[in-house]
Amino acid sequence: SHVSERTKICQKVETLLKNVHSGLPDPLTDAAKCCLVKGDYLYFHYGCDGQDDRGWGCGYRTIQTMASWIYLNTSTVQNQTRIAPSLPQIQQALVTMGDKPGSFSGSREWIGTFEASLVLDYFCDVPCKVVHVRGGGAELEQVAVEELHQHFEKHGSPVMMGGDGDNSSKGILGVCTGDKGSYLLVVDPHYYGRQLEKTELQKRGWVAWKRVSSLDQSSFYNLCLPQTAAKGI
Q1: Which of 62, 91, 114, 207 has the highest local Cβ count within 10 Å?
Q2: pTM of the predicted structure, to 2 decimals
Q3: Whole-angstrom Cα distance, residue 1 to residue 132?
Q4: Mean pLDDT of 9-15
């Protein structure tokens, strides 16, 4: 069943959209600095592989998007038939590593940035840096934005962001800073439904530039930053 599950994922993956942010205009005409994801990735979202994970799978989907980037942009894992681990494989891996109890496998429990770092190291052999950003606009504008600029310049891989008050996981594909603050390029895993064209996803806001000031100011946030440059990409 392990093989058939893998084949099933690969067949589904062929229908996934690549680089859903391409063609999206920059949020600022006079940006001082914009840094974006480099290379290809696939957009994973609720239900995209036939598993209905609405309400709990957003963290897993963002991890899959990150894993697809690692697979598509690094030579080290090219020989594997897997583009990204499935939700059951992610859960089983966390049980195997001892991070979660056996009952976690097959559950509908959420996972966050810490689990993302474990899973990407386990499946992709890529270490991650996890950065904790205390709530509030100043911390987000300074710490998170600076970390993201450095990350996209050096590594270029998608980032996962999640928090406590704002506990919906999101992928971050870029950061743009101007005089009046910064914007994050957010790819949202919460979309559920039939395959849309990327222009339609952009129009509906599933991939969009969001002002940092629009984030939940009372929530802390964690960033999971895959240290992909260490792999000699």
Answers
A1: 62
A2: 0.91
A3: 39
A4: 60
